[in-house]
């Protein structure tokens, strides 16, 4: 591959519970316009569009990319929809990267939007991701699935509900500084612990919200960026790794992955770090935007990103690590993370966008001083599809 | 300005074929109240629920192996909130490694008082011995059986 791939434009909505003023394609358009303005490009200069859209039933429009194609200006252009569930957004950025890294294109737009708040039955939709042979009759959903991960993690490493609450308190504080975040009110450990139990041990405040909004990014080849004298930050490492389907295979005897942890995410980070030449992430990473829709899953994500040993992150958060203003090490989810904003189709793209803004020095009140290296991740399926990225100034 | 909304319900009907492996598994549950796994000859692991092939070796599984009815809890959750189109709370479900199996099977937990989460979570702790109970009337589904902690 000749030269690197850079990020030259970023657009995000200010995410909200509902957007009654905007139909689905309007929300996609909103993010695209911001990203195009940010890059200073005209639509004619975009050669391909990668469309970020997770399960159709969440927006309630079958193959909704048909409708979105107008909002991204894809007429007469390469157009490709990506869906890896919750990982969709980072998979879309990776696909845009591939178009450029392969030499097929110089400038690629990736964009999408979600209106999760319009789906009254999101856990019904997510229950349908399980197979009709064996598991559909069980009340599986993403909350219940990851509550079981919490139970296993607590059993293995001694995590408490108070530890989980500390993650919420940290991320809400971060989100209060992020105008794009959906839940921006600060909270306390007591308030989290007093919120109603949803799926043991996950309480209401341990859960992400259902958000509406869009995200878009413009990527280009280093050669093209240099020719035009544009500003950019660079994707220096990226990878994906997958886990097999059955949750019950991630426990029992002779398993290759424990449902407490995130083995495939760890494998993906390892590959991303190797590509970026990062040898000691605990010293080298400044900003970590890790996909964690429930408070407990931030712990195994931190450990999969090798920012902590297995089972060690709850104690580190107890001592103030990973928070904005911490003395040392990476800040985890300076944007407030998925816990404060989840528009599923673009959530993992927002992770890359926020990591990019940090290393670009454009993260406003949530800026980590001197951030030069950022990482991002996305998780999709039944804790199955993991994408990771390293972005650098 | 006045902003309008439109409500919709999707009601879509499917008739899913379960295939040879799941069909045989459910017939044993329905007709004999017995749970079987299938062995991956290469690794020796008994997969429950049975798969036609192993996700680890990618070889076809070979012989059927009866598992349970005893087993050990590997994961659980207790649901206290109502989700549309899912059962009325509270209920407990999770995964059990049945005796003779190498992977865990999903099912409901019954015989545990769920009002107090803290207490119920102790009764369902990982490692707890359970026994499989079968409904009298069985249709060939995972809801034909459930797990109950064995009183010590």
**Oligomer description:** heterodimer
Major sheet attributes of chain A: 10 strands, mixed
Q: Strand order within the widest sheet of chain A? A: 3-2-4-7-1-8-12-11-9-10
Number of strands of chain A: 12
Class by helix and strand content of chain A? alpha/beta
Strand percent estimate of chain A: 15-25%
Instruction: Please trace the helix and strand order of chain A, writing H or E for each element.
Output: EHEHHEHEHHHHEEEHEHHEHHEHEE
Q: DSSP helix count of chain B?
A: 2
Within CATH, the superfamily of the domain at 5-120 and 210-228 in chain A carries the name: Thiolase/Chalcone synthase
Termini separation of chain B comes to 66 Å
- How far is the N terminus from the C terminus of chain A? 20 Å
Cα Rg of chain B: 19 Å
Which range best describes the helical content of chain B: under 10%, 10-25%, 25-40%, 40-55%, 55-70% or over 70%? Answer: 10-25%
Explain this structure to me?
The complex is a heterodimer of chains A (393) and B (152). Helix content of chain A is 35%, strand content 19%. With 393 residues, chain A is an alpha/beta fold. In chain A, the strands form 2 sheets. Chain A has a 10-stranded mixed sheet. In chain A, strands 5-6 form a two-stranded antiparallel ribbon. In chain A, helix 4 crosses helix 14 (344-360). Chain B has one domain (19-149). Chain B has helices at 19-32, 117-123; strands spanning 35-39, 46-47, 64-67, 70-79, 91-98, 105-109, 129-134, 145-149. In chain B, a hairpin with a 6-residue loop joins strand 5 (91-98) and strand 6. The radius of gyration of chain B is 19 Å and the shape is globular. The chains are: A alpha/beta (393), B alpha+beta (152).
